[in-house]
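note to self — DONT lose this again. spent like an hour looking for the file last time. sequence + predicted structure for the chain T wanted, 153 res
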Amino acid sequence: MTAWELSREGIPYTLICDGMAASLMSRGRIQACIVGADRIAANGDVANKVGTYGVAVSAHYHRIPFYVAAPVSTFDLQTPGGDQIPIEERATSEVTQWGTERVSPEGAVVYNPAFDVTPNRLVAAIFTEIGEISPVNAQSIDKLLRARSDVRK
């Protein structure tokens, strides 16, 4: 979705899989990271597809800015922090099978979360349709969103 939006605006980007991000960062091939969000807590902690947190940690280590682009409807001001965001677990078959064929030992223990949470301290800014939030904290979020009626209450 983020790549689609960037393309529509004529902003250059390269779309990669999250598993290759750290390697490309270490070689100086990445100047900034922009991800979407499924939910943003009142303090700016960001829940997104699993793997996002690892990209944020790698970006922080390599001193690369890590940005979140999300509509204001993504903010959940009733959830104070990311540790209170429920994380959906997906079916074990997503990990143990390829189509109808089993690819793991019978009885393998599987943990398959769909999302992870990136703490606000790793986020350089959040871009919304009504403006930028930086620094990312409860006060900056409240200041930008105070007058918005479409934020989750």
